[in-house]
Design a protein that fits this description.
- It catalyses: alpha-D-glucose 6-phosphate = beta-D-fructose 6-phosphate.
- Pathway: Carbohydrate degradation; glycolysis; D-glyceraldehyde 3-phosphate and glycerone phosphate from D-glucose: step 2/4.
- Keywords: Gluconeogenesis, Glycolysis, Isomerase.
- By secondary structure, this protein is mainly beta.
- The chain has one domain: Jelly Rolls (Sandwich).
- It has one helix and 17 strands.
- 26% of the residues are buried.
- Bound molecules: 5-phosphoarabinonic acid and nickel (II) ion (NI).
- The site of 5-phosphoarabinonic acid (PA5) has 14 residues, from β5, β13 and β14.
Length: 186
Amino acid sequence: MDLKTRMPRQIDLASGQFTAGVLHEHTTTVGMLTGLFADQAAWQALPAGTPLYTVAILPAPQQEGELLSGVTHLYPGRVGREFYMTRGHFHQRREQAEYYFGLRGRGLLLLQQAGQCVLEPLFPGSVHYIPPFTAHRLINPGSGTLSALAVWPATAGHDYQALQAQGFGVRIMADGDGWQAEVQHA
Ligand code: PA5
Ligand code: NI
């Protein structure tokens, strides 16, 4: 039997930053999220280049059996009364599940499946199972960056189209110093 020792990839738990390994990084800005936020006037008033979130992905081959992992850093802020959030998606392969792990900040994971929305608080150490056939979105009603590690099948894909008509059934809006969930449609 041959034996070798090697260093694993690493993540700094305090910042949620990968500190080793090749990364693919992508930042989503305000201008990329047409029609996502309820207050169109407030959305248009923000500079289109304002960063909303950055995803850093450890690449893997796009093959059956492979796993991708990535950290989403969702910045704090609001569009009108609505807190910054990710676009949100179903997986193209609807039967494929995902895990999220809270690393930094305090926020929310919104899950939606067949007319049912579930909100889970996300915080350092929280573990979230996203079942098959479930749309998911991160929301940051906090004052600092929200960072979460995700692990998902490399073949899952992202389907943003399916949510374009009606969107998620719940919006997270500022309410005094906190937030409230506003139900949009049945
Ligand atoms: O795989 C995931 O669910 C995450 O890595 C998301 O892609 C990430 O949070 C960005 O969200 P979205 O893809 O909805 O823009
Ligand atoms: Ni996903």
